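Task: encode each sequence below as structure tokens.

Item 1
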Amino acid sequence: MIAVHVNAPDGARVPRRRVERAVRETLRREGVSRGELSVTFVDDARMAELNGRYLGSPEATDVLSFSLHGDGEDPVGDVYVGHARALRQAEEEGVGAGEEMTRLAVHGVLHVLGYDHPDGRERERCEMFRVQEDVLRGLATGGASGGSGS
């Protein structure tokens, strides 16, 4: 069984069903049939606090992931997505806010599953980004299993 929890602050417009479907599709594509993941959308202040506490950088970032399982265990993890940052990035990139929030959630889940990426120009050419974008394309074309989008 896979448990997925999507959390957002009151009043925040978050495509909860789409994010949940994307998380489940990411796990399915990676052969995961059991696990528990939470995706929590937070404001810039909370993201900066988490980033400072756990990674030593006092700035708000777009996504943080915490893998809470050991090697060989079913994946368990927490993903934090910077809601305001996602909205700004969506505008900068010319994509829908829901798409960017979903992209960041998938990105975080892939980190929980052990994926990583280089910094700099090579970042968008690595396997992690290929998988991430493939999941998003699948959602856009209806390739992911699950109900209707939000």
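Item 2
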Amino acid sequence: MNKDTALVIMAAGIGSRFGGGIKQLEPVGLNGEIIMDFSIHDAIEAGFNKIVFIIRHDIEEVFREVIGNRIEKLCAELGVSVSYAFQDMNAVPEGVTVPGGRRKPWGTGQAILSCKGIVDCPFIVINADDYYGKKGFKKVHDYLEASEDPSDYCMAGFVIKNTLSDNGAVTRGVCRMNAEGYLTDVDETSNIIKVLGNAEGDFGVEADGIGIDPESLVSMNMWGLKPELIDLLEDGFKEFFAVTPADRIEKAEFLLPMFIDGLIKSGRAAVKVLDTDDRWFGVTYKEDKPVVVESIRRLISEGVYREDLFSDLK
């Protein structure tokens, strides 16, 4: 019998670089679909049978209008459950005071912690505004189905040259692995840009003037995790507040990749890197949207998706 497995979508981001508005809800498909629709399709196709949206209370109404109600109806027909978790800036450990200047929740680690009591099975984590392609969902799902160890995780590793924006710098977690393909380090690297080469279509990759191998694997926050991690995050969140200096806490973030990196280094978790050559795209900047729209059209014309997106699942 197949295990229950959940798709957890982190959709609580404010999207400040997008220039206002809720970038996760921007229509990009032929019928007004948003990027999340394609991830949900690919996850259900891969075998995931639960969906959990992580959102904020202040976007709940518009979120349900744009996607939530529609996906709930679809999933009811497919035997897939839908739940909501709410990431709240004020949901902090007992004894912690939220700084008066804080304006947003505490990062991706807190986002997954908000799923406590909701997620009770192996799960995949993704960003709401990233398109990942089908291969990562299938590889992560199959790994989670086969794995019994509660400290055995996995991660889809994307080739860095396939994850860049033409419209500005991006931040990526550059991965280092051992000979067995297990993650040893995640180097969170900012200001990553394309550097045009001499030949047409040729480009290199740099961060702050330092070259990066274009074939390097990076984390795009597509993790395959176990429910036991959520309890570890609860303790980690308390430690985060205990060790972060008072003059930095107002803008500090409790980040999932950094927490997992700590588990690896302390021998409390192992993360298998599952490589995928699918091309990522997403809406980091407003100027990215036309590229995403065109990419979706191309995938439909190539037969990767139907014009009526979910019709092949029914």
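Check on item 2: The chain is about 30% helix and 25% strand. Residues 151 and 298 are 39 Å apart (CA to CA).
End of task.
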